[in-house]
Amino acid sequence: MSTARKLAPATLAAVLALTIAPAAQAQTAAAPMTASIAESGTALHLSRQDKSYLRQAHRGHLAEIAAGRAALRESRDRGVREIAWRLIRDHRRLDARLRDVADRFDVRLPDAPSAEQQAALRDVVARSGQRFDRAWLRLQADAHYRSLRLVQVELRLGHSNWTKDLARDSAPVIRHHLRMIRAEQ
To answer: What pLDDT, on a 0 to 100 scale, did the predictor assign at position 2?
Structure first.
């Protein structure tokens, strides 16, 4: 076999390696840049899951703030009132961060809690005294369990680091609220 024939496969492999490697490097270098542009808010795209999380979490914050206000109006129990103040303060803070992210990605948020959340609060407010307090605490426990599930789904299925950070940061606050609620029940 001639030397040219022996070198041809090796030469072809070297040429392919030289042409494919820079293209692959360019692709890998472009991927992080694209992701960082998307995450910086320049490209205004979130997955359906991320948008759903923002909307549902916002409704949850609005519902918790409304429930806290109702407890301040209706309850005479010191522990329930302390929890209500804490819920209002913490959910306002969490929701302010959430609204910033929603604005950055141009996600429209609902103006009020869901009809189901409003009906549940109306049912609790229809009670008085200790019956109100017990029903209010049960409502808060249920709402915070649902919020934790919402956070877990976002962390598992979400795509945006912005929304996942919101979910990750809200989890300890929600767990703390649950501990306070359980201690009062």
So the answer is: 52
3-state secondary structure of 41: coil
Kindly tell me if the per-residue pLDDT of 25 is higher than 50.
no
Q: Where are the alpha helices (DSSP H) in 41-107?
A: 48-74, 78-104
64 burial type by CB count under 10 A (0-12 exposed, 13-18 middle, 19+ buried): buried
pTM (two decimals): 0.76
- Residue pair 167/149 in contact (Cβ under 8 Å)? The answer is no
- Is there a single domain that holds both residue 32 and residue 52? no
Give the whole-angstrom CA distance, residue 111 versus residue 48: 19
Look at the block and give the residue holding tokens 């599930």.
149
Q: What is the extent of the structural domain holding 124?
A: 47-184
- Residue 44 and residue 125: Cα distance in Å, rounded? 41
Same domain (yes/no): 5, 74 = no
Q: Are 159 and 50 in contact (CB under 8 A)?
A: yes
